[in-house]
Structures are given as structure tokens and as C-alpha cells.
Specification:
The structure is a single chain. By secondary structure, the protein is of the alpha/beta class. It has a single domain (2-214, 249-275, 314-336), classed as Rossmann fold. It has 14 helices and 17 strands. The strands form 5 sheets. A 7-stranded parallel sheet has the order 3-2-1-4-10-11-15, sandwiched between helices. It is globular, with a radius of gyration of 21 Å. The relative contact order is 0.13.
């Protein structure tokens, strides 16, 4: 079985590559990544020699229809897991166009290629058995009802739902109400994926996750930014009063959930993936300071580093995910609670300072110094 994983060198994508190759030692991944500022091939340097034999990397953009077609022609693609996306809200506010192009048009190009190669008069490409990995195109419609089909899995975000009040949770039936160019582009991509299922019958799933954290996250997102800035005694920029609430999901738990959905999710269904770990942003920042001070013995790591900055435009106040559906239907539930996960994450960044230095590019520094004056 050959799985095309787009965005494979990004934060969640690279963590998924590690997880998937180790969980499924008989399968192969064709990884596609454009290696923009947030994509780093070094994120995959920890693959074993055996795993490298089952991983092929291709540098390129999902908006490049000719390249995507070439990948399908050269590799017998049995499934697509689409992580590839522009994903930072602040950047989408400053430059919406690239988000619309990559997140919407890129998704549509992948869908078109999958449709062309997987659909025939007899139905959709059918894998005989998910365990023995035999690949066959069935000519018997009766067999198509029981086969495991090739599948397109779209990785989305809870931000497509908009904001919550002080109570309640997002469910899969919550109306889409995005508030930023980023979340609007992801909601649009979700609707296109759904349309390919409803119109053409393409086997698809969509997952919408809460905020991820863990190893290999580019230090523009809250947790790695605060870790890196604190270690360098730089200001810790906190939007507004810092009381925005997010549900935090350790990245390995997310990878497990994606595997559950890819293997057994009912075609056409959306699955919310949440961590049951709601925290205010200001709590996260103070917790990071506390843990770093304990681990480093650096008394200068204290709350005086916190700098409240002008709130983000259209900043959603609270997100909260209800993952009941994926738990009841597929048996997944998060295993790593926040207090454990944040310590594991901090340990990883402390032990991988060279990685942090290598990914902090001039573009990253210019963007943050310009927009947050830090």
C-alpha cells in the first residue's frame, strides 16, 4: 500500500510519518512537501534505515497539477492524507492570497488527480484487504460494497467552526463560521472535499482537530515560540488579556486518531479530534515559564518576560472540541493529558536546541519583529 502524505515535512505531517511507518511496517509513504519556511526535511532525519526504504520524498507544491499527475503515474497511490496547508493565522491576515491558493486550489488539484486515477466505470479503486495489502480493481459491483477503497483524508481544523461562548463544544454538526482568511480557506477546502464525495461518490473523510503541540513544531506557534523566547530571555508576546481558551492535543494522539479514521472512518464523515485539555493562553505561558525555570535553574525566567500586545484581528475567544463521535464509532480517545504533554514537549525542545536554531530563519525573525515588535 502506497500512501501519499502531503505536507510530510511540517509539524504534524512529520510526526505522522514517524508514527505511520512504525505502526504499519508493510506500507510505504510517498511524501510531498514544498519545504516553505515551516517545512523542514530535517524533521524526518530520525527515520531508521528500514523506514527510509519505505519512504520516498518529493519536493513540490500541491498546486502543481503536472507534478501531482506525475506522482500518480509513477506510484500506485492507494490513499492520500492531505496535511499540506498554509496554517498560521497571523500570516493569513497579512497575506491571504497564498492561503486561498494553497489550501483551496491545492486541495482541488489533489482531488482531481485521485478521481482520475481511482474512478472507473465499475466504481472506485478497491483494495482487496487492508491487512494483506493486495491491490485490485474489482469489476463486480457486489465486491465494491465490501472492499476497502482508496481514500482521501483531509486534515482540517476546529477553527472552521468559529468561536464558542463560555460553555458548549464544537460537534461535527456545528455550522461552519470561520473568522480569519486561514480558517475560511480551510472551511472552503472541506466543502470541496465533501462535494467530491456527494457528487462523485469519492471515498473521503475530514478530520478537525484542536490545537496541536509537541516535537518539531515551528516556533511561530504559541508553545514553541514561548519556549524559545523564554530560553533566550526575549519578551513573551501575549495577545490582549491572554484569556483566550484553546483545547490542546498532543501531536502523537492526533496521529493515532488520523490512523483510526483513515483505516475505519465511514466514507463521507467528519470526525472531530480533541484533547479534553482546555487551557487559557496566559496559563500556558506561565506554565512554560514555571517548568523551564525548574528544569534550567535560571532565576531570570519569570513572568516579567510576559508582554501583552494588541489583540489579533478577529481573534476567536474560545474553542472546545467534542470528540464523542470518533470515540464511540472508532474507539479513539486521547491518552496524553496536558500536564504530561507540555513537560514532554519542553524536554524535547531543550534536548534539540540545534534543531530550533536551524529552523529560525531570517524570514521568521523579520516577520515577528515587524508585526509584534519584539
Amino acid at each position: 500500500m502506497n500512501i501519499l502524505v502531503t505536507g510530510c515535512a511540517g509539524f504534524i505531517g512529520s510526526n505522522f510519518v514517524y508514527y505511520y511507518l512504525r505502526k504499519h511496517p508493510e506500507r510505504k509513504i510517498i511524501g510531498l512537501d514544498n519545504l516553505t519556511y515551516a517545512g523542514n526535511i530535517d524533521n524526518l532525519s530520525g527515520l531508521t534505515e528500514e523506514e527510509k526504504k519505505r519512504f520516498s520524498f518529493i519536493k513540490g507544491n500541491i498546486c502543481d497539477a503536472e507534478l501531482v499527475e506525475q506522482i500518480f503515474n509513477e506510484h500506485e497511490i492507494d490513499g492520500i492524507i492531505n496535511f499540506a496547508a498554509e496554517s498560521h493565522v497571523d500570516r493569513s491576515i497579512h497575506d491571504p492570497q497564498i492561503f486561498l491558493k494553497t489550501n483551496i486550489l491545492g486541495t482541488q488539484i489533489l482531488l482531481d488527480a485521485a478521481k482520475k486515477h481511482w474512478q472507473s466505470e465499475s466504481g472506485w479503486k478497491c483494495l482487496e484487504d487492508s491487512n494483506n495489502l493486495a491491490k485490485a480493481q474489482s469489476s463486480n459491483p457486489a465486491n465494491l460494497q465490501s472492499c476497502k477503497p482508496a481514500k482521501f483524508l483531509q486534515i482540517s481544523t476546529d477553527e472552521v467552526y468559529g468561536a464558542l461562548g463560555a460553555s458548549g463544544f464544537f460537534t461535527e454538526k456545528t455550522p461552519l463560521d470561520p473568522h480569519s482568511p486561514y480558517s475560511a480557506s480551510k472551511a472552503s477546502a472541506d466543502l470541496i472535499v465533501k462535494a467530491y464525495h456527494d457528487t462523485f461518490g469519492m471515498p473521503v473523510n475530514i478530520t478537525r482537530c484542536s490545537n496541536n503541540y509537541g516535537p518539531y513544531q515551528f516556533p511561530e506557534k504559541l508553545i514553541p515560540l514561548m519556549i524559545n523566547n523564554a530560553l533566550n530571555h526575549k519578551p513573551l508576546p501575549v495577545y490582549g488579556d491572554g484569556r483566550q481558551i484553546r483545547d490542546w492535543l498532543y501531536v502523537e494522539d492526533h496521529c493515532k486518531a488520523i490512523d483510526f479514521v483513515f483505516e475505519n472512518g465511514k466514507s463521507g464523515e467528519v470526525y472531530n479530534i480533541g484533547g479534553h485539555n482546555e487551557r487559557e493562553n496566559i496559563y500556558i505561558v506561565k506554565k512554560i515559564i514555571e517548568i523551564l525555570r525548574e528544569k534550567t535553574g535560571d532565576g531570570e525566567l519569570n513572568e516579567s518576560l510576559i508582554k501583552h500586545v494588541t489583540d489579533r484581528l478577529g481573534h476567536d475567544r474560545r474553542y472546545g472540541i467534542d470528540p464523542t463521535k470518533i470515540t464511540q464509532e472508532l474507539g479513539w480517545k486521547p491518552s496524553i493529558m496536558f500536564d504530561e504533554g507540555i513537560e514532554m514537549t519542553i524536554d524535547w525542545y531543550l534536548n534539540n536546541s540545534e534543531w530550533v536554531e536551524s529552523v529560525i530563519s531570517g524570514e521568521y525573525l523579520v516577520f515577528y519583529n515587524k508585526n509584534y515588535k519584539i
